[in-house]
Amino acid sequence: MNKKKIRNGIVFLLVAGLIAGGVYRLRRRENVPEGVMRLYGNVDIRQSRLAFYDTGRIKRLLVQEGDAVKQGQLVAEMDPVRYEMSVKEAEGSVNAQKQVLARMLAGSRPQDIETARERVKVAEAVLQVTKVTYERIKKLVKGKYVPQQQLDDATAKLKTAKADLKAAEEEMMLAVIGPRKEDIAAAEARLKGYQATLALARQKLADTKLYAPSAGVIQDRIMEPGDMASPTTPLFTLALYRPMWVRAYVPEPSLGKIIPGMKAEITTDSFSEKIYKGWIGYISPTAEFTPKNIETPELRTRLVYQIRAYVCNSDNELRLGMPATVTLRFDPLGPDKNQPGSSVCQDD
User: Has this prediction a pTM greater than 0.85?
Assistant: First the structure.
């Protein structure tokens, strides 16, 4: 009797399991009208990792995980002391070089030119005295009244006086003409270099403040004040509001019914009564095996093509990884090539 009861119980459990499985399958089957395709996938979004351009000590973090941020909002600051000093140093170099260039462009002062002329007059007078002394000693040496050495000394002094006069005349000429064009061009080039250094220093100072590149939600706060930041280490992970799409998969026989820009309707279990507007923005050029998280029996063992149905999410109700259903409507006889699609949410 016990064996019979056990056997009957096993049979009862098997029948109940078959009935439950049949009910489950019936519930999963959908009455999809002709000209409508339903695809199943998950909400996907882009993420941005926010980091400073340079290394430095983190001074302040202004947002927490879960905070919504706007584009351009200040989210973190780095200690700016070193970068402020670099700016001051570069400003000093620029100002000094500006003075050098201004002096060269202004040319010689009248006082400098007059001083150069006076030097020429002095050199002419010295040369005249040297010539007279040379001629007198030359006559004395000829009469053998003085040794030859004095004539040699006088000759050397005469040559030196002539050279001094020539140098004074050239100095006066340069004072009148002013700096050469090449020197002015070199000074201008140095000024531009210093100005570029100053611009870079100011940019580095500005980069000590970190701003959100797009609107979104802070997903991860990775570092804290006092930590040493670097360009390779992000401070935050930002989940972007835009763009947002549903990643779904289409079997090859149905691929010809879908075209880029095709309108789509997206629904979720969380907001079952709400329909989000969307469009087909991407169709993969290569096939792949259906991912394991796609559980529809028709797709589980087939090669499929990934699509992205971009969705408008004005109320920020959709979340990363949320299961979603994509509904496409089309002409059963073939895709309507003129069906209007949109890549811009009208209600944004």
Answer: no
